[in-house]
Amino acid sequence: MFEYILYFLSIVVFGDAALIVLLYFAILGNLNFAGVFLTGLIATVATDLLWYTIGKEFPAGKIFGNLKIPRIKEKYAKFSLLFEKHSLKALFYSKFVMGLRTPVRALYGTKRLPIKPFIVVNFVAGTIWISAIALLAKVLENSLSNLENVVQETAIVLSIIVVVTVIIYFFVQKAIIKNLS
Q1: Cα torsion for 49, 50, 52, 54, to the nearest 10°?
Q2: Cα–Cα nearest to 21, from 11, 35, 34, 9
Q3: How far is the C-alpha of 116 from the C-alpha of 5, rounded, in Å?
Q4: Maximum Cα–Cα distance for the chain, whole Å?
Q5: Is 67 helix (H, G, I), strand (E, B) or coil?
Q6: Fewest Cβ atoms closer than 10 Å to its Cβ: which of 9, 48, 53, 69?
Q7: Distance CA 90, CA 98 (A)
Q8: 80: which DSSP letter?
């Protein structure tokens, strides 16, 4: 039980960096995978709730809404309306974009939007996110040479696609010019 509290605290403090390491060791069999996965999910939802609460208790709207600079006040008002309309989408997608997660959760709290959809969306997005990290950890479990081979093969395929695309582009462009002449 103590180790899960430690996992929880490390994920809250260090975020995804700690989660990646914990999931990697779980996939190697050194830690209980289900326990780490569940602890990671609980920690991410708890952290998101913390940011929601901070936003609710220290609303940014009071700061930006009362500014004397009309341009900032106007932009904040437009952004605020847009966010209220698409808040759940923003909440979901921000889980996967580094740097947006915390401000979006705090803004959701600032707007005092309903907590139930917030928890549901965070739970679903968190499950997808942690599953993606677990998949990454599983890929990293393979030897570096296997991973290196996959990267090299992917680079070769992508290079071929780029070359073929450029050739097709020039042929199409030449045909268009010829037809216009």
Answers
A1: 160
A2: 11
A3: 25
A4: 78
A5: coil
A6: 69
A7: 13
A8: H
CA distances from 124 to 79, 93, 147, 150, 171 (A): 25, 11, 29, 30, 47
Amino acid identity of 70? P
pLDDT of residue 100: 78
Q: What is the pLDDT of residue 42?
A: 92
How many helices and strands in the chain, by DSSP H and E? 9, 0
Nearest CA among 82, 85, 87 for reference residue 121: 87
Whole-number percent of the chain with pLDDT over 90 = 10
Q: Is 83 helix (H, G, I), strand (E, B) or coil?
A: helix
pTM of the model: 0.64
pLDDT for 43: 92
> How many of the other CB atoms lie within 10 Å of CB of 28?
13
